[in-house]
Amino acid sequence: MPAYRLISSDSHVYEPQELWTSRMPAMFQDRAPRVVSQENGDWWYCDGRKVTGTAAGSQTGRRFEEPDALSRTDRFTHIRPGGYLPDARIEDMDLDGVAAEVVYPTVGFVLYNVVRDGQLLSSCFRAYNDWIAEFCSAYPQRLKGVALINLDEVQEGITELQRARRLGLVGALIPAYPWLERPYSGAEYAPFWAAAQDLGMPLGLHIATNRPGPDQLHGFQNVDTLSPAFLTNTDHWVRMSLADMIFAGVFERYPQLKVGTVEQELSWIPHFLDRLDYTYTQRARRDYWHRFQSAVLPSDFFRQNVFCSFQEDVMGIRDRAIIGIENLMWGSDYPHQESTWPKSREILDKILADVPEPEKALIAGENVARLYQF
Question: How buried is residue 117: exposed, middle or buried, by Cβ count under 10 Å (0-12/13-18/19+)?
C-alpha cells in the first residue's frame, strides 16, 4: 500500500428527502425541493421544475461491475446510506482507504440552474448549509463541508458566507459561471472576494453550477435534454470565469483569495495558461484592459491562487509541472455514478505510477489538507 494519505478534495453528500421540506420557512414550503415518484423513477422537483434524478447517489461503484446497467433514473430507497448518514459514510471511506473528505452537495448545487427566484434559492441554501454543518460535525476531523452561496445579491452572499464560517464550514460554492451580464470581472463582487479572503474560505467553481439570469440558458437547465456535447465541454464556463477574474486583477488585489476548478479535470489547463499569457503579451491592448502593477503574467496568478480538483486525468498529471504541482488535488466524487469508490487507491496508484513519491503525497492529500486545514 502506498505511503501517501488519501484525502478527497471533491466528494458529495446525497441530501435526505426531508432536508428542505423540514427546514424551509413556511412561505417557501410549497416550493421547496422535494422528491416526486414517477413511473420511471424518483425525481427531485423545486418550484414546479424538475431538478435531477436519484441515480447520482444510488449506483455507486456499479460502473466497475455492471457498466451496462448504469441508468439515469432510480428510486430514492436505493440511495447509498453513506450519502446522508455520517456513520455509514465513514465505513465507506474506510473501505476505500480515504482518510478525509471535502464534502459538496448533489441536489443542492443543481438548484443554481433551475431556481429563478433568488430569495427561494437563498432560503434553500441556508437550509442546506445548516444540515451539512450538522452532518460533518459527527466526524469533524474527517468530514469538512462546503457551503452553498447565492450571489444574485452580493451583500446577501457575504452575510451567508460569514454565517457558514461560524457554522464550521470550510469553503463555499459559487456559480461556475454567473449571469452573463454580471461576469466575475465586475466591480460589484469586490466585497465578496474581500470577505472570502478575510475569512479564509476557498471558493469552488464546480461543474453543473452555472447561474442563468432571466431569459438565459446555460445548458444544464433541462435535465431531459442534456447533451453529451455539452457535458464534454463544460470546462468552457470555468475557463471564462477564471479568465475574467485574472484579467480583471482580482487576484492582484486579493492575493490570499483561493478559487478552484472542481470536477472539470486538468488537461485543458496547460493550453488555457498559454492562451492567457499570449493574450496579455501579444494582442493589441484595449484602453479598458487591466494591466498588472508588476512584471507578472496571468499564469502566475493562476498558479498562485487557483486550486485544481481532478478525478482520473492521466494527461493532466503528465503536465503537472505546467499546471503547478501544489495546485493539484484528487477527488473521489463519492457517491456519484462516476466516482472512484471503492477502487480509489487502485485507480490513483495507476494515475500516479510515474510520479515521484513526494509529489504523490501532495497530489493525493497534502495539498487539500493544507488548503482546508485538515
Answer: middle
Q: How far is CA 112 from CA 108, 173, 222, in A?
A: 8, 10, 12
174-223 per-position pLDDT tens digit: 999 999 889 999 999 999 999 999 999 999 999 999 998 766 555 555 66
Distance spanning both ends of the chain, measured CA to CA: 22
Whether the upstream peptide bond of residue 342 has omega within 30° of 0, thus cis, is yes
d(CA 352, CA 218): 35
341: its cell numbers: 469508490
Helix (H, G, I), strand (E, B) or coil at 180: coil
Amino acid sitting at position 313: D
Distance CA 303, CA 308 (A): 10
Q: How do the residues of the chain divide into helix, strand and coil, expressed in percent and rounded to 5?
A: 45, 15, 40
**CA pseudo-torsion sign 267, 178, 290, 292:** negative
Pairing state between β 7-12 and 100-104: parallel
Cross-strand partners of 260:
204, 307
> CA 34 to CA 320: how far, in whole Å?
42
Cell numbers that stand for 52 in this block: 435531477
- Residue whose grid cell is 459538496: 104
| Distance, CA of 227 to CA of 371 (rounded, Å) | 34
**pLDDT digits 0-9 by tens, 113-128:** 999 999 999 999 999 9
Q: What is the mean pLDDT of residues 73-98?
A: 96
pTM of the complete model: 0.95
CB 152, CB 120: distance < 8 Å: no
DSSP one-letter code for 327? G
Query: Could you tell me if 174 and 241 are in contact, meaning their C-beta atoms sit under 8 angstroms apart?
Result: no
Confidence check: pLDDT of 245 > 80? yes
Give the side-chain half-sphere CA count within 13 A for 80.
Answer: 29
Phi, psi torsion values for 368, nearest 5 degrees: -70, -30
Cα separation, 128 vs 110, whole angstroms: 13
Place of cell 471503492: 342
Domains of the chain, CATH where assigned: 7-372 (3.20.20.140)
Q: What is the pLDDT of residues 297-324, one digit of tens each?
A: 999 999 999 999 999 999 999 999 999 9
